[in-house]
Design a protein that fits this description.
By secondary structure, this protein is of the alpha/beta class. The chain contains 12 helices and 11 strands.
């Protein structure tokens, strides 16, 4: 821990606010790297302490902030971590920064099955940092996860997060493309979830530099219409799901109708579009007949 002058810290905060330099990202940096939250800062001000302990010295913290200002590099990559649902996950540039809107996919999955359903086997296709699969096994103690990713570096990040957050070995990790590593589970999976690359070419080309320059293209770009990977996942799903098994996909705001048609073509019913917290049709689900 590093003892920091409270006065110096608040003078810096005042300068950031005055210059309007992304104050929310600044507070996130203080939290993720410094180890002090916005609410703790408020208490610090009320209590008028002369010193405060941070996880990093002030000079290093200022250098990290300068990196954000100069490069537009996301705070999550600068700090190597992010908050998602109830946990703090480690990140590297090999994995996508998990978005707040994706958090709902965990609730959708959990609500599909009754609490009495004991042994659920689920697949998390394209696990990235492991946020979805780890959250699911923490919230559903009887579930068994199978997490796949095409990038071995992403798998290593997910495994590290799993070891840090979970006390049990309730997820198996596999490196490979979508369903491919799960051949021995053919016809045995009750639920599959994926937040695949779904951004169409025209949209990807216009993404801000903070996304395009730092987040892995492989985790974002979904081909010309954004459906290249989604079509692969849907077409192979019948080989792996049990009869009555569910598939949950995150998608671009305008893709749900096409995804429903694809699901229907491959033997799915109970099709539904679910809006995210911003009112966007973010998730498409279907049940294999």
């Amino acid at each position: 821990m590093f003892e920091i002058s409270t006065k110096e810290l608040f003078l810096w905060i005042k300068d950031i606010k005055k210059n309007k330099q992304g104050i929310d990202d600044f507070y996130l940096l203080l939290d993720l790297l410094g180890g002090i939250s916005k609410s703790e800062l408020l208490l610090l001000k009320i209590n008028a302490q002369e010193k405060v302990n941070l996880n990093i010295d002030l000079i290093s913290l200022k250098k990290k902030w300068l990196e954000y200002i100069k490069l537009s590099k996301p705070i999550q990559y600068i700090s190597g971590s992010t908050y998602w649902r109830n946990f703090k996950f480690e990140l590297t540039n090999d994995v996508l920064i998990p978005r707040v809107e994706t958090e709902q996919i965990v609730e959708i999955a959990s609500n599909i099955f009754d609490y009495e359903d004991k042994k659920i086997i689920f697949a998390d296709l394209g696990t990235g940092s492991g946020t979805i699969s780890i959250s699911l096994v923490v919230e559903n103690s009887n579930w068994k996860g199978l997490a796949t990713d095409i990038d071995i570096n992403a798998i290593q990040v997910a495994q590290k997060n799993h070891k840090k957050i979970c006390s049990e070995s309730n997820i198996n990790f596999y490196c490979g493309n979508w369903w491919e590593p799960l051949k021995k589970y053919s016809g045995r999976i009750n639920l599959a979830i994926s937040n695949p690359p779904y951004i169409p070419r025209s949209v990807y080309e216009k993404l801000p530099s903070s996304v395009k320059d730092f987040e892995p293209k492989i985790a974002l770009y979904g081909g010309e219409d954004g459906l290249y990977h989604i079509q692969q996942i849907i077409s192979d799903a019948p080989k792996f799901l049990v009869k009555g098994g569910w598939l949950i996909l995150e998608n671009h705001f305008d893709q749900s109708k096409k995804i429903k048609n694809l699901l229907r073509d491959y033997g799915f019913n109970s099709l539904k579009t679910i809006n995210d917290t911003f009112g966007i049709g973010r998730f498409t689900i279907g049940r294999y007949k």
